[in-house]
Each structure stands twice: as structure tokens, then as C-alpha cells.
Design a protein that fits this description.
By secondary structure, the chain is an alpha+beta fold. It contains 3 helices and 5 strands, in the order H-H-E-E-E-H-E-E. It has helices spanning 5-23, 29-42, 88-101; strands spanning 47-57, 60-72, 76-81, 105-110, 120-124. It has a 5-stranded mixed beta sheet, with helices on both faces. Strand 2 and strand 3 (76-81) form a beta hairpin. The longest helix has 19 residues, at 5-23. It starts with a helix and ends in a 6-residue tail after the last strand.
Length: 130
């Protein structure tokens, strides 16, 4: 039975909050990414890190057009940041990745802020709640 995308997102947010509480701001993105991926795997979730994604544009192939920070259950894209404040370009970049991968939902997670709540953003690609 397939797990609901909203349930996956909720579980990821809970785990990400724990990572932020335990580690706090100030580390490299790669540290948060590895710890988050490890904890998600520990909960039995399928997790891929730094997965290269190719695309074709105007007849040209780009086998490594970008890398997904984390892909959970082959359905939820996670863009991990460790900056003082998210910028609109982070959201636009995440949406571009979702469109190219034909995924409905991504989470932009910034571990650089004082609280994770201020650094958490849902990014939807023509996605509507069930």
C-alpha cells in the first residue's frame, strides 16, 4: 500500500525539526543533509541523496542538469539549505526541479535559522491537497 504524500511530508518535517533542535544552526548543508537522510532511513523510509537528474532541452541532453539533495520514497524532493535567510531564488530553483522531475511537492528546508519553522517552505508543482 502506497503511503500518502502528505504523511511522508509530515514525517520528514518532524524528523527535520529534531535534527535542527539537536544540531542548531551553523553547520554545513552537507552535515544536515547526511544526518536528516540517516534519520529518515532509520524510520524505514527510502532515501536517495545527491541523486543526479538529467533532462533534455531543445534537443540537447544534460545528464547531470542538477542534483537532488534528498528524494524521499521516490516522491518527495527535499532541498536542504543552511543560510541565514531563504531567498526567492531558492523557491524558484526547487520549483524548477519539481517540474523537471514531474513531482508534485517539495520541501525547502533551511537549517540556518534560529528555528526551523522560519526556514521551512512547501513548494507545490500544481499540487492540491487531497
Amino acid at each position: 500500500m502506497e503511503v500518502d504524500l502528505e504523511d511522508i511530508a509530515s514525517r520528514v518535517i518532524d524528523v527535520a525539526m529534531g535534527v535542527h533542535i539537536d544540531l542548531g544552526p551553523g553547520l554545513l548543508e552537507s552535515v544536515y543533509e547526511q544526518v536528516l537522510a540517516n534519520r529518515l532511513r532509520g524510520q524505514g523510509m527510502k532515501v536517495d541523496r545527491q541523486m543526479p537528474v538529467g533532462t533534455r532541452i531543445d534537443g540537447l541532453d544534460f545528464p547531470d542538469a542538477f542534483r537532488v539533495d534528498i528524494l524521499v520514497e521516490n516522491r518527495l524532493l527535499l532541498a536542504i539549505k543552511a543560510v541565514e535567510r531563504l531567498s526567492p531564488i531558492h523557491t524558484r530553483q526547487t520549483l524548477t526541479y519539481l517540474r523537471l522531475m514531474k513531482l508534485p511537492l517539495g520541501l525547502l528546508i533551511n537549517f540556518g535559522g534560529i528555528t526551523l519553522k522560519e526556514g521551512l517552505k512547501r513548494v507545490a508543482n500544481n499540487y492540491r491537497l487531497p
